[in-house]
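Appendix C: a fully annotated inverse folding record. The material below is reproduced so that readers can follow the format used throughout the book. The structure is listed first as tokens, followed by the designed sequence.
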């Protein structure tokens, strides 16, 4: 289905959470971390659990740095589309 739509990325991490959060008026932010391309990219070697865990470890470090660098720049920001 995603190939037929011409999609480049398949996101399996934010639905239905983001929809339910919006409906409940809860501010919600996701950080997506890709782990592999073998579900659609032809010519890639089959993904192993070890490969995924190694990439997840790198992704976790990247997200930690992202959060540490971003949180300090947020100064009492309020989401206008949320109840909070």
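Designed amino acids, in order:
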């Amino acid at each position: 289905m995603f190939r037929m739509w011409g999609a480049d990325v398949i996101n399996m991490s934010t639905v239905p959470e983001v929809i339910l959060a919006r409906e409940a008026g809860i501010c919600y932010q996701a950080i997506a971390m890709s782990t592999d391309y073998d579900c659609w990219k032809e010519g890639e070697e089959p993904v192993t659990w070890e490969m995924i865990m190694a990439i997840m470890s790198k992704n976790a470090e990247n997200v930690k740095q992202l959060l540490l660098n971003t949180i300090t720049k947020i100064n009492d920001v309020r989401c206008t589309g949320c109840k909070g």
